Each structure stands twice: as C-alpha cells, then as structure tokens.
Amino acid sequence: MEIFSSYNVIIEASIIVILSFWFNGLSKKTNVPSVLMLILLGILIKIGLDLFAPSIPDFEGSLEILGTVGLIMIVLEAALELELKKEKLIPILKSMAIALIGLVGSAWVAALILYEFIDGMTMQSAWLYATPLSILSSAIIIPSVGGLADAKKEFHIYESTFSDIFGIMMFYFLTGGLNPAEDGGVVGFSINLLLTIVIALVASYAIILIFQRIKSQAKLFLLIAVLLLLYALGKKMHLSSLIIILIFGLIVKNIKLFFPGKTAIFLEEEKMKHIYHDLHIITLETAFIVRTFFFVIFGITIVLSSLLSLKVALISVLIIASIYLIRWVILRVFVGKDILPQLFIAPRGLITVLLFYAIPAQAQIEGFESGILLFVIIATSLVMTWAMIKDKKKMGTILDEIDEEILLRNEAEDTLNEQKEQTEGLEAAATDALQKPQQDSGIQMNDMDIEKELPE
Hints:
The protein has 456 residues and is an all-alpha fold. The chain is 76% helix and 0% strand. It has 15 helices and no strands. The longest helix is centred in the C-terminal third of the chain and has 84 residues, at 370-453. The termini are far apart.
C-alpha cells in the first residue's frame, strides 16, 4: 500500500487535525501542553514510517515554511489581544524589560556552556546556537495561560511576544556578524529597526484604509497574503519583519488610539469591527493548523538516539538550570515575591526549532547534537505543566476556602436573622399585651359616657 498517495495523505492529515483538536481539550483539563502530545504523535508516526514505509520524505524544508507562517500567525494573534492603555504602560514596559534581560542573560550563559562542552564550538557559533534556546515560546505559552489571573495572563502574553521578537532580531543581528562586509554594527542595526517601524506604520495605515473599502466578502485571505508578502519582502531587505506584523495587529486592535481626533473621519468603525473579529478568528484557526503540523513534523525529524547521550543530558541540564536561575533573579527584581507560577512558565518551542534550522552553514558545528534542542523543549514544557497543575490545585484550594467562608458567613447571617425575627415577634406580642387593657378601659369609658348622654 502506498502511504503517501494523495487520498492517504488527505486521510492522514485529517486524522492529525482531529487528534490535535482533541489534544487541545485534553490540555485544558490536564495542563499538559498540547505541543508535547503533538511531538509524541510525530515520534510515533516516525516509528510507524520506519516499519512500513520504504523511504521517508525530507520534511526539513516544510518545517521552515510552516514555522515561518506559524510564527506570523502567532504574533498577529497575540497582537490582536493587546490593548494599549495608559494604565497598561508600566506592565508592558516591565514585560519588555524582563523579556529582553532574560533573553540576553540566558543566551550568554548558554553560549558559555556550549563553548565549554562542545568540541570545535567557537564563541560566535555558540551565541547563534544559544539564542534559539533562550527564546520563550509564545506558541506554547499563549494557549496555556488562559486559566491564570488576568494580570499574570497578560504578563505572559506580553513577555512571550516580546521574547519572540527580540530573539529573532538578536539572532539575525548575530548572523549579520558572519558577513563583515554586510554587517552595519549597532548603528546599522538601529537604523534598520527605525526603518522597519516606519515601513510598518505606513503599510498598516495603507492596508486599513484600503481594506475597509473593499466590498468583497472574500478579503481576509487577501489580507493574510499581503501580510505574508510584507514579511517576506522585509526579510529580503534584512529588516526585522516580525515588527511589521506586531504593529499591524496593535493598530487593528487599538484602532481608535491610532486614529485620534479629526483623523477618525477616515475610519469606518463598523467595517473595522468586522475586520478585527474575522481576522482574529482566521489567525486563531490558521495558527492552530500550522502549529499542529509543525510540531508533528518536528517529532518525525527527531533523532531519538541523541537523547541517550550522557553528554547531551549534562549540557541540557546545565542550560535548563541556568534558564530558571536567571529567571528567578529577574522576576524577584522586577515583580517581587509573587513569582509563581511565572517562574516556571518558560517553555521553548516553535521559534527555537525554526531558528535552529536557520543557522547559516558557515556557523554550524558538527559536534552539536540536536538532542539538546529536544531535551530543553521537553523539559521546559514539563516543568511548565507541573507548575500549572500545582497552581490550579492552589487556586482550587483558595476557592474552596472562600466558598467555605462564604457558607459560614451565610449560616451566621441566617441565625442572626432568625434571632432578630424571634426578638421582633416577642416585642410585638409584649406591645399587644400592653395595649389590650388600655383598649378595654377605653371601651368601658366610652360606654359610661354614652349612658350619661342618654335621656332618662
């Protein structure tokens, strides 16, 4: 039987999507990230292919395409959730600082570890390998933090989104150093960033003004195509293209903020509401599909034998320990004592894999085992799972205590009300008893007066 015939591929892809949807539901109940289930599914598929397929296609090219599209959709999805208000300025800046310091600090320590333990590793290559391992995965975090308190949930959305953006910018800044002729240094990087922001603002306003006047109903995929085109052209121009996607999403979400005063005349609010709503749905659905196939294919491409190496385990454990130690220090400085479960919500995922496959050939080191990548992804995801389950139990205990306190308070109030009613009843009875003789006396006096007035 031909496993990769057209109808078989359709059947296999459909089953994977159905399983992924089921994994999402299971993840909400167990707090186990659906990403881990998808990777495990990919590993099982690989085992099956090794047994029954004469040859396995090369999936690495599709990983890069899926990862890029998934990254765009995930960042756009996150941007469409972010409200820009004065009261949220401090949380945004704090999240940005934590993401940036955590990224640079983790990459620095991981680079030292890789340089020390891997034969033939240069410091420049070590930084390139360490950067993907230091980026938080918004693809895992954003779907997983829905059950947290609003402030903590918002913090993780901001932090993971900024980590993605800063991580990608840092990675391509480092790759620019491989070609001294094209490397502009810090000044060139700053100019590049400023140019990206200007292009993003101009393109975003142009897209909004044009698309709100398009009457055709089938325009959302056209909008997605334009964003993908802008991202790809930006990459060709060596710009930080992800910022274009982020700024566009922020403008659509906070449309009134970006069209203040008299500029609001260019805005058709009702149409923009529909565009925002439909765009939110389509990015959510597309991100789900792309994320599903990305992690399944990643599971298929994993070399399981590399996980059995003691050297891989040692390097991975040191990197993981450094991640949480650095994170603990940063959160204590910026957040204070209330750092649970935030401390342990630091998984690596889609960006880590995507950038790993984007490391230029001249910087690749043969001694680097891909098992380190898998080890770090699985371990950080499992730690996050444990923290989320523990936090869920803690929240359940707190809610139980609150419910019990409310129940006791209600019972006490019912007892007081009953006592009050009994007291009021006794007072009313006493008042009636006192008033009755007076009423009888009054009646007798009235009878005597009537007798006096009657003629003899």
